[in-house]
Amino acid sequence: MSLWVVKVGTSLLRGNEKQSTAEVIESYSACLSASLKRGDHVVLVTSGAVGLGCNRLGLSQRPVDVVALQATAAIGQGQLMALYEAAMSRRGYTVAQVLLTRSDLGSRQRYRNASSTLKQLLDWGVLPVVNENDALSPEELRYGDNDTLSALVATAVEADQLIMLTDVDRLYSSDPRINASAEPISDVYHPHELTALEVAAGEGGPWGTGGMSTKLAAARIATASGITVLLADGRDPQVLDGLLQGRRSGTVFHPHPQPLGNRKSWLAHALKPLGTLQLDEGACDALQHRGASLLLVGVKEVEGNFEANQPVRLINPEGNELARGLCSLSSNELREAIETQMSTNRSPVVVHRDVLVLRNA
Ligand SMILES: Nc1ncnc2c1ncn2[C@@H]1O[C@H](COP(=O)(O)OP(=O)(O)O)[C@@H](O)[C@H]1O
Ligand SMILES: N[C@@H](CCC(=O)OP(=O)(O)O)C(=O)O
């Protein structure tokens, strides 16, 4: 039995001259219900609320204004669920709507709640249908995308594989719509390879958000948690059917050989840092090569305002992010402690190793 997370983007759900949105959803539902019938567990992360809302209002373009985007999503979300509900219930399966915001997942308690609810639904053989809670989260609609959400969901349910379906057959060395000689890429083995690909990743289509960049960011999150990511062509439903039966297609992002545990993965990816600590060379070396906690003596500068146990970025003297973690002191306490440490001659732990995650490890 496998646990799959399948993400379907707006570019596919808008439909085309040959297929309406309802027909596209119908064909995915056939693949998803076949997978459930084989005894697998599946979570679906689906975009499409804005696109369907726009269709309903007769808009030929995605609105630029964020409030208008939120309002179109509120119209489209009900329609989106109605289509999945009809297609899955006709095949004897129940669907459940789960709307999440990024800030929900930033709270450890709410992240755990989301994880428990999703796992309960999976135990009951239900298909959870997840989308961003767009009507309430303007930030996500402006900058966000469902690719990152799908990776966070895959981590929360401890999925085996994350399938990201889109309107291109695989990853290329650069945007194939712009560069006809872009090279196809079948396997990505290490986060270092992702860094170069991220630089070359292009924008998405007019209806999608984020293009290839957000898919690579999602692959980074999921593979760091030990999840295999498959980026594949969603225009042909046979591809999804094949993937769910273990056939290879598109690009495979292989899981990191030393995956982060659930809590560290949450720390590294679901949390938004509220401040930045600039470290000296000695502290960077201790963190990177000696598995040490961050001590006060290695902190040079503090930026931002945060309370004790809130997330911060740790940067090296060149300004590059080295790690993230929970700071044991508030920003005010930390600034005060840096000023007085010379006289007290003690160096308390500022970020304990247990709540610290190195980037690109
Ligand atoms: N390096 C790349 N490899 C493949 N596709 C790319 C790349 N850079 C940009 N793209 C474009 O990204 C698009 C998919 O992203 P997007 O429109 O956001 O889709 P979705 O709605 O499925 O999330 C593709 O149509 C493709 O043209
Ligand atoms: N939550 C939004 C999706 C945002 C979006 O466009 O995502 P995607 O198509 O996956 O790049 C919606 O349902 O329309």
Automatic annotation (TrEMBL):
Catalyzed reactions per annotation: L-glutamate + ATP = L-glutamyl 5-phosphate + ADP
Entry superkingdom: Bacteria
Binding residues annotated for substrate, in chain numbering: S47, D134, N146
Record EC number: 2.7.2.11
One GO term of the biological process aspect: L-proline biosynthetic process
Keywords in alphabetical order: Amino-acid biosynthesis, ATP-binding, Cytoplasm, Kinase, Nucleotide-binding, Proline biosynthesis, Transferase
Record function comment: Catalyzes the transfer of a phosphate group to glutamate to form L-glutamate 5-phosphate.
Protein name in UniProt: Glutamate 5-kinase
Species name: Prochlorococcus marinus (strain MIT 9303)
Gene it is expressed from: proB
